[in-house]
Amino acid sequence: MFTRRGFLIGSTATLTAFSAPAAFAAGPLTVVATTGMIADAVRRIGGDAVEVKALMGSGVDPHSYRQTRTDIVAMTRADLVLWHGLYLEAQMEDFFADLGRKRAVVPVAEGLPRDTLLGHDSYENRFDPHVWMDPSMWIGVIDAVAYALSEARPDLAGTFTANADRYAQELKALAVYAEGALAKVPAQNRVLLTAHDAFGYFGRAYGFEVIGIQGISTESEAGLNRITSLVDVLVDRKVPAAFVETSVSDRNIRALIEGAAARGHQVKIGGELYSDAMGEEGTYEGTYIGMIDHNVTTIASALGADVDLGGMAGNLGLET
C-alpha cells in the first residue's frame, strides 16, 4: 500500500486490478477512462505519454450508462482502463470485474479513506461517489491516477508524479477560490437545490445545505410528495434560486418553480451546473478546473454573492 498526501493509493480494492503485466512497450500508453473528469486527470498527468479516450462525454449520465460494443472494443484493446468506482458506474461493475481478469482495470476513487466519504442513503455499505465536487477530495483521485499510470509505465513514474504534483497545486488554488467566492453568499441563501443529490461533498466543503430532488443516483424517482415538500422548503425559506444540471432533465426543477410561483414565491433558475459530466470537449468548462470554476461562480452569483462572472482566472463567459 502506498500513502500519498494522506490518501491510500493501491488499497486492496485497487491492487487486485493490477493483474495484467505492469510494463508496456515504448510509445504512448493507451488509456480508457469512464468519465470526462478522470480522462482530464489522465491528460494532465500523462501528457504526451498517454492517449486517452473518455467513454462518457458532455451531458452523459454515468449512473445509467451501459457500455456499447465500441466501448468494449476500446477497453479490451487499451493498456489501462480507469473507472471511478464507489458505485458510480453501477451498470458496468460486472463487466469491469470480468475485464480485470485480463487487463489492468483500476477504480481510482476506491482508495479514498472511508472516513472521508459520505454515506449512501439507499445502499448499505455504499458511499456517495460524487467526490469530484470537492477539489481537495479530487486530489486523492489524481494521485490514484498517477499511481496507476506509473504501474503501467514504471520508466515514466517520475514524470507522472511531478505532473500530478503540479496539477494538485492548481486544484488547491481552485479550492481557495471556491472558498472565497462562496463565503460571500449570505447565510440565509446558503441552500443549494438541484435536480439530484450530487453536491454533498460541495456542501460539506463550503457550508451549504444541499437538497437534491432525486437521490444520489438519477435512477431514483421523485414522487409527487417529494415535489410538494420541496415546494414548501422553497416558499417557507424564501430560497431565491434552484439549479438545473447538464446531465439530468430539468423537468422536476421546473415543476418546483411552478409550484412555488403558484404560492406567490418567485424562484429563478440560477443557472446550469455540471454535476456528473463536464462541458463540451475543447472548452474551458470541458476541463475539471473549468467545470468546478463554472459551478462555483454560477452558484455564488445566483445566491447573492458579488463575484466576478469571469471566474477564477477570467475564463468564464457567464451572463448576469
Describe it.
This protein has 320 residues and is an alpha/beta fold. It folds into two domains: 2-177, Rossmann fold (3-Layer(aba) Sandwich); 180-302, Nitrogenase molybdenum iron protein domain (Rossmann fold), CATH 3.40.50. 38% of the residues lie in helices and 15% in strands. It has ten helices and ten strands. The chain has helices at residues 12-15, 36-46, 69-77, 93-99, 135-152, 157-182, 200-206, 224-237, 251-262, 288-302, and strands at residues 2-4, 7-9, 29-33, 50-54, 80-83, 104-107, 191-196, 209-214, 241-245, 268-273. It has a four-stranded parallel β-sheet, sandwiched between helices. A two-stranded antiparallel ribbon has the order 1-2. A two-stranded parallel sheet has the order 7-8. A hairpin with a 2-residue loop joins strand 1 (2-4) and strand 2 (7-9). Helix 6 packs parallel to helix 10 (288-302). The chain is globular and about 65 Å long. The relative contact order is 0.13. The model is unreliable at 11-24 and 216-220 (pLDDT under 50).
Q: SSE layout and pairings?
A:
Elements (H helix, E strand, L loop, with lengths): L1 E3 L2 E3 L2 H4 L13 E5 L2 H11 L3 E5 L14 H9 L2 E4 L9 H7 L4 E4 L27 H18 L4 H26 L8 E6 L3 H7 L2 E6 L9 H14 L3 E5 L5 H12 L5 E6 L14 H15 L18
Parallel strand pairs: 3-4, 3-5, 5-6, 7-8, 9-10
Antiparallel strand pairs: 1-2
Offer a concise description of the structure.
With 320 residues, this protein is an alpha/beta fold. It has helices at residues 12-15, 36-46, 69-77, 93-99, 135-152, 157-182, 200-206, 224-237, 251-262, 288-302; strands at residues 2-4, 7-9, 29-33, 50-54, 80-83, 104-107, 191-196, 209-214, 241-245, 268-273. The protein is 38% helix and 15% strand.
